[in-house]
Amino acid sequence: MKFLKIVAVALAAMLLFSCSTKLAQSDLDAANAVFAEAQNAKADVYAADEYKAAEDAKAAVDAELAAQEAKSSGKDYKKANELIKAYADAAKKAKETAAANAEKVKAEVEQLKNDVNAVYASVQALVDAASKDAKKAAKAKLNVKYLASKAEAAGKAIADAQTAFDGQDYITARDSLNTVKADLESMKSELEAAGFAAQ
User: Fold this and answer.
1) What predicted TM-score, i.e. pTM, was given to this entire model?
2) Contact by Cβ (8 Å): 187, 147
3) In Å, how far are 26, 43, 160 from 19, measured between CA atoms?
4) pLDDT in tens, 131-145
5) All residues at 6 or more sequence positions from 56 whose CB lies less than 8 Å from its CB, including other chains
6) I need a surface site. Which of 61, 95, 135, 161 has the fewest CB within 10 A?
């Protein structure tokens, strides 16, 4: 009888073990790979909400895996595998959203570069005209040297924005160009109000 009890316990343990779900390691590896791609796509910048969701999903997976690994026996990865699927979906969404949003910002910057370069060329011509007519500039109370230095600084900022753009940092490029554009348009208005025209 005692022998039969031992056998029954052993069989029950074997049955429990055989019914336990194994970790879907290949799915986890694939999810981690997509998450890394989302990071490379700067999802934290271009898809902040989706990236946070992917981070949270990853944390849930890590917590469940740690809980199962802490068990000396009876490990079951059914819940972990479900969480891995959710993690994979969230990582994919973050990656795809980041790529789409980055392209939108890139297109915006492309147009902005054209606009800024056009205003910059006008301001350069206006500053040049003002520097050639000191009497008129003085009458209009224009500080031509100051305006020339601002135009020079704008040129440097435009170059820096281009560097950011080339490095795929489209948001920095956009923000910088918007600032430069506002400054240049203000200078253009001031010079034109003083009676200067591009030559």
Assistant:
1) 0.75
2) yes
3) 20, 39, 61
4) 999 999 999 999 999
5) 90
6) 135
